[in-house]
Amino acid sequence: MKTKLSELFVGVFLLAGVVSVAFLAMNVGNLDSESSGESYRVSASFDNIGGLNAKSPVTLAGVRIGRVTSIQVDRDRFNAVVNMTISSAYNNLPLDTSASILTSGLLGSQYIGLDPGGDIEVLQEGSVIDITQSAIVLENLISKFLFSQAEK
Amino acid sequence: MNWTGFIFVASIGRWAIELTHGLGRAGLFLGEVFLQFDVLFRRPRLLIQQLYSVGVLTVLIIILSGFFVGMVLGLQGYNTLVGFGAESSLGLAVAKLLTRELGPVLTALLFTGRAGSALTAEIGLMKATEQIAALEMMAVNPVRRIIASRFFAAVLSVPLLTAMFCVVGVFGGHLVGVEMLGVDNGVFWSSMQQGVDLYDDIFGGLIKSLVFGFFIGWIALNQGYFCQPNSAGISRATTATVVTSSLAVFSLNYCLTALMFSA
Question: What is the percent of chain B where pLDDT is above 90?
C-alpha cells in the first residue's frame, strides 16, 4: 500500500513538472506566435534603423504579422538592409507597400509598421520594399529644432 | 637544516595530491554511475522510489518558496518600475528574472539543502553501518543498486522542480502585481508573452537547472560514498555537500549565463 501511494505521488510529481514546462512555454513564453507556420521573406533598406533589432515585430495596422529576422549594412550604399518574415496569411500586400520604423510608446521598443499602397502586384518571397521611412532619432530631432530656433 | 620550511612545502604537496586524488576518484565514480545507466530500465521501481524521496518530498518547499519569491518580485518590481511609469512591464520583469536566474538558482540551492544533504547522510550512514560492504559481500554492485537511481532521480527532479518554481512564482507576482497593486491583468500577461523567449529564457533556464541537478547529485553521492564511516565523518560530508554544491551552483550559473546569454 505504501509503495502504491508513493508511486501515485511520483506520477503526480512528473505530470505537474511536465504541465509546468508546458505552461511556461505556452503562457509565459511565446510558443504560439513563434511557430506560426508558413511565411515569406522581404527586405527593405533604411538610412537609419534607430533601435530596431532582430526579432522586432512587423505590424500592419498595429497588428503583428511578422518579425525582423536580421539586419545588415549594405557596403556599397552605406545603409541598413532589414530582412523580415511575414506570415503567408498576409500574402496580398501590394508591391508599393511602404515600411516605416515606429516607436511603441514614448520611449518604448521600435517596430516596423507597414502601410499598404495601391499596386495590383503583391509582395512575394524575396521582394524589396522601396518606400521606407527611417527611425526618428531624438538627437536629430532636437538639433533640427535648435537650428530652427537659431535662425529666427 | 630548516625543517619547518620542508614541512610547509610538503603540506602543500600533500594538499595537491589529496585534491587530485579526490577529483580523480569523483570522476571515476561518475563514470561508474553512468555505466549503470541501464538499471533505470531494468529496475524502474528503484528510480520511482528515489523520485519520491528526492523529488516529491521537495515539492512543498519549492512551491512555498517560489510563491514568496514571486510575490516579493512583484512588490519590488512594481515599486521600482512605477517610478518610470513602466509598471506595465511588471509581468515581463517577474517572468524573465524567474525563468533566467532565480528559478534555476534558488531551486538548486533549496534542493541542495533539502535533498542533497539527505542523500549524503543516507549513503554515509549506509557506509558507517557497513550496509555497502554487505552488498559487496553478496556480489551486489552498490553503485548499481543504490547510487545510480539516486543520481538520475536528482538529475530528473531539479528541472521539473525549477519549472514548478517558475510557474508558482509567476502566479505570486500576479497576485501582488495585479490583484493587490492594480496592474492590468491583460498587460501583465501580454508584456510577459512578448518579452519572454521560449528558447533563450525558458529552455536556457531549464538547461541550467539540468546542469545544476547533475552536479548536486554527483557531489552529494560522492561525498556520502567516500565519507569517513563514523558520525563525525558523516557530519563533515553533509556540510561539505551543502557548501560545495552551493558554490558549484553559483559559479556554474555565472559560466552558463555567460555562455548562453552573452551572444
Answer: 71
